[in-house]
Amino acid sequence: MSKFSIYIACSLILLAAVPGRTAEHAAYAQFVHTLGQKFSFIETDHFFIVFDSDENWAKQTGTILEDLHNGFYNTFEKAGYSLTPLSGRLMWVCFTDYKDFDNYASDADWMDNSWLDAYYSSRTNRVAMVLPQNLKNRNSRLVAMNFDTKLHPSVTDSPKSGSPDLTRTVHEAAHQLAFNSGLQKRGVMYPFWVSEGLATNFEYTSIEGENENPLSGNSVRQKRLLNSQNRNRLLPLFDFVASTSIPTGKGTAAKDAYAQAWGFWRFLFKTHPQQLKQYLEILADSNPGKRDSIAMCRDFETVFGPAKDLEAQWRNFISTLEK
């Protein structure tokens, strides 16, 4: 039995024995213990941050997460969504060392996430990330695996020790909040554009917080989207709305897909808000498990009509973006 399996068993015992946040704290503290003595943690109103580095970084990250929590709920409630309050603190696990991060991903999520430096797991309901000061090792790591995937635009190309990485932090937090507020449901298979489009629309791409809600801009994703359209690299909507995978490998496919997800989600949020809300509700009511592209396309077209008929509106929307 792995240490994380032992943690889950211990957590269930603790949660059954002690009510409320005392049980939550005890279970989370037990998890930290399984990681080793070098790990510490801090708690905020809505987050539990585990780290093996600078406490100042953790505190700054906690402030960012709380700000995003408030902005996330305000944005969707103003748009007419009824979000569910968080049932407990959401956990973040932050590593100094890539090897520890990779081992954690393999043990906790049974998968190879070695091409990533941060991810939200709907299985564990946790965010895991490598601390920003170690991203300098990222390029050689990706080149060795034939990946060209700087998926999260950075506030700075050289993050310093103790400095939070805004873009990665808010991107992964948006995923976590979506799956814990009722906007999305864990276990349901979502099209790529739904999850990643939502998260990229909350990214900060400047230290001042250029994009605090989906109605603001994202200059990095927008530039990429316009470039993709000009070079005829955008996927037709009929294919795009049903895709569930992230393009990887050499080339620009992954970056293009994230930019298209950002733009398409923004397009629907701004021009078809009630239909988008209805569509997300339908998906959240779906049964957990795998679904094929036919089912994905059917869900989309039930609300929005034929994807091919939306193509002209979508392309026109792109042309209205500032170049």
Q: Compute the number of structural domains.
A: 3
Morphology: globular
Amount of beta strand: 5-15%
**Poorly predicted runs of 5 or more residues:** 4-18, 141-149, 155-162, 206-210
Helix content: 40-55%
Overall pLDDT level: 83
Spatial order of strands in the largest sheet: 1-2-3-5-4
Name given to the CATH architecture of the largest domain: 3-Layer(aba) Sandwich
What is the helix tally? 13
Radius of gyration: 20 Å
Which CATH top level class of the largest domain fits?
A: Alpha Beta
Helix-strand pattern, N to C?
HHEEHEHEEHHHHHHHHH
Structural class: alpha/beta
Annotation, overall tally of beta strands? 5
State the separation between the terminal residues, measured CA to CA.
55 Å
The CATH H-level homologous superfamily of the largest domain? Collagenase ColT, N-terminal domain
Biggest sheet descriptor = 5 strands, mixed
The CATH topology of the largest domain is given as Glutaredoxin
Structure description:
This protein folds into three domains: 36 residues; 146 residues, Collagenase ColT, N-terminal domain (Glutaredoxin); 139 residues. The chain is of the alpha/beta class. The longest helix is centred in the first third of the chain and has 24 residues. About 11% of the residues have low confidence. The protein contains 13 helices and five strands. The termini are far apart. Strands 1-2-3-5-4 form a five-stranded mixed β-sheet, with helices on both faces. 53% of the residues lie in helices and 7% in strands.
